[in-house]
């Protein structure tokens, strides 16, 4: 290799193999450690109902309870958005259904789970009375939680949750965009908090009365003032409540701010489509069970500022909703730390999973250092040097 040419070497090493790698060349002048999202699991099916059943299968071998929500169209999400904390408290998967009939994948999954109780979220316009009657005839105990509006349904879910265990706080956000409620769902579930809705420039009156009835002291608003008006803060404070806000004008900004605020609670991320609610909704309670923050993606992964602290991820949905290229992008993300000034380079190699070593010639002639093996492993090209070929 000629003078001043830079040779980069990426070694994927483990504690069992790194101790045998002794790099003695005085040309080794820098090491970098890359900590990426190394454990990525995709849970996807042939359609939203199949994905929903697979998410349940992934998280539960058996459950007395299931939560059933309507998801026939991409606009049927409102009634179900507030349901994650309730499903979490019931240790129940969230399963999707059509308006009139239950998909075979969902019926089969309910049977596999050996469920006894079915909680339907929303009115008969999203999950029909016909379905409810069939479940009852099959011996299931069915509870429908529904209100006249999306605000009322969220209120009734909050009441059900509060009856089980006194609520700690309320998360307040818009009901017109699914991302904001689902972004907060993990945290609400872990904190035994309700998700309630308001839209427009003033606090929804029914929601206001519910907050007072619940007798909580803390309300956290999700979204910037373009999502939930700043006038709502003032109204809540006038009621004597402690009000905080997780700001952001886009789902990506809000998700990032939530993660940064709750780093100690989060072990990983759950990746879902930013344009289709169904997979994120099915996965929301599984995310909470595994202390994972839900993040929303389009064509690219716009969360590089959080990736350095995350080592595991689950993707909800097939490659038609979250592409393979985005999965590959996630796997290859991570922080790069320059440790060129560390004294014990061999110990640095032993202590970390991914090491980059750079060498540069110091003489005006070719040396005999050459790559002898390459392979692909998890989207990373692995270049290995023969230690015998590294010359001083």
UniProtKB/TrEMBL annotation:
Residues 1-30 form the signal peptide. Pfam families: CW_binding_2. InterPro entries: Bact_Sporulation_Assoc, Cell_wall-bd_2. Keywords: Signal. This is Cell wall-binding repeat 2 family protein. It comes from Clostridium kluyveri (strain ATCC 8527 / DSM 555 / NBRC 12016 / NCIMB 10680 / K1).
